[in-house]
Amino acid sequence: GFCFGGAGSPATNGCQNLGVGSAGNPFTFSLSGPGLLKVTDAFDIGDTFDVFVNSVLAFTTSAPGAGSFTGNPDVAFASGYYSAGSLLLAAGNYSIDIFANQSPFGGGGSYVEIESVIPLPGTLALVGLGLAGLGLRRRVA
Hints:
By secondary structure, the protein is α+β, with helices and mostly antiparallel strands. The chain has helices at 73-79, 121-140; strands at residues 2-4, 27-31, 35-41, 48-53, 56-60, 84-89, 92-102, 108-116. It has one domain (2-140): Sandwich (Jelly Rolls).
């Protein structure tokens, strides 16, 4: 997780929300394959964020809605009432900076996560069938 002050403040180290670890600007990492960058507000509803990838504004998290309190990053991300956003990243080196865009409570804690993107088993089966079909077609021809 990360902490932040009022609007315009950067993400800072120091929040360890639900044992997921802590980080602050910049978040730097390398991906050997595709990954999904996820940023979500949690706890008090109302904060939004500007997310920069390699110094370029990549996205602003969604407008917050109304709902119940949660400190769980997955519940908050999927809820539709906490501000959230995501971006699919290719393999490579990244530097992520997050700044509070809107913060009605003057600060708080939120989450940033990188999820591995793994092809679904059904997708792999379809690819396999397609390759097998090409092989049979070549044998017949």
